[in-house]
Design goal:
There is one protein chain. By secondary structure, the chain is an alpha/beta fold. The strands form three sheets. It has a six-stranded parallel β-sheet with strand order 1-11-8-7-5-6. Helix 1 runs parallel beside helix 10. It binds NADP nicotinamide-adenine-dinucleotide phosphate (NAP).
Length: 280
């Protein structure tokens, strides 16, 4: 049986290191969270982020807009928060209502306050290996989980399922920076099981329940499940068929209790880093 990667325990490690840095900042640290519309999952994610912030001592200011709010109204708020010296980090909770182009709004956030690490500037810095940018939370959390199993992953073959700008692409960049050989697969990829079977590391960020099957996984692989889906009973499940894969893999992350807590922990890491950077 494989080792189950305990995201909650690893998240505590990341939070504790963020707390040490936080304690050196001799002023209030503030995270501003913007929510548009009434996506129920977003509400839960924001509650988790607030709870982590509270634990650390970071103040959270929330702004909620109704679903039909125009782009200009939200972008005006972002401009205000960018200019507000007391705000260290700005988080735009995704997904946005369909009439708003997320890229345009994300890129309105000052890169140094972009604690989700999703602006084109911060993503571009990751792409060109410029370490001065803020890194996206979920991929950073996944990398920490992988390295908790194997610290040196240089030369390993990594397969990333999903190519979104928030997870798949930055994930592949981080793995490339660790000297992995990386394949990114997506909905147009052919022979997905064959591609997966090559992976010493498989990261699934597809958003399809139980998508990755045991016979897609090479014996001894590290399997990380980013997916968050609901089954018929509204229970949260991942992309990965956990039990059968845990008989093949060297290590596997569960859902829930895997990547989710790591994402929140890295958000706090980024908020503290943004706050210390701006005043050092
Ligand atoms: P997304 O933007 O919808 O991207 C999904 C990706 O999966 C796309 O690249 C898509 O390919 C690919 N895909 C979809 N169906 C496929 C199929 N049948 N075969 C192969 N590839 C397929 O989603 P996301 O934002 O990256 O998130 C992915 C999952 O992770 C979701 O379940 C989300 O809820 C979860 N998530 C979890 C956390 C966390 O903290 N745990 C954080 C972020 C996201 P195309 O590009 O070709 O369409």
């Amino acid at each position: 049986m494989s080792e189950v990667i305990n995201g909650r325990a690893l998240a505590e490690e990341v939070l504790s290191s963020a707390k040490q840095k936080f304690q050196k900042i001799e002023r209030k640290v503030t995270l501003s969270i913007i929510r548009i519309g009434d996506d129920q999952a977003s509400l839960i994610y924001i509650r988790n982020k607030e709870a982590a912030a509270e634990k650390l001592g970071v103040e959270v200011k929330k702004n909620h807009f109704p679903k039909e709010t125009e782009f200009n109204k939200v972008s005006a708020l972002i401009d205000e928060l960018n200019a507000d010296e007391s705000v260290d980090g700005i988080l735009l909770q995704l997904p946005l209502p369909e009439h708003i182009n997320p890229r345009l709004l994300i890129d309105r956030i000052l890169p140094e306050k972009d604690v989700d690490g999703l602006t084109s500037i911060n993503q571009g810095k990751l792409f060109v290996s410029d370490d001065s940018g803020i890194r996206p939370c979920t991929p950073m959390g996944v990398l920490y989980m992988i390295k908790s199993i194997c610290n040196n992953i240089s030369g390993m073959y990594a397969v990333v399922l999903g190519r979104s700008a928030t997870v798949g692409r930055p994930m592949a960049q981080l793995l490339l920076r660790e000297n992995c050989t990386v394949s990114i697969a997506h909905s147009c990829s052919k022979n997905l099981p064959d591609i997966c079977r090559q992976g010493d590391i498989v990261v699934s960020a597809v958003g399809c329940p139980l998508f990755v099957k045991a016979d897609w996984i090479k014996e001894g692989a590290i399997v990380i499940d980013v997916g968050i889906n609901r089954d018929q009973n509204n229970k949260i499940i991942g992309d990965v068929d956990f039990l059968p894969i845990s008989r093949v893999a060297r290590a596997i992350s569960p859902v829930p209790g895997g990547v989710g807590p790591m994402t929140v922990a890295y958000l706090m890491h980024n908020v503290v880093a943004a706050a210390s950077e701006r005043y050092e």
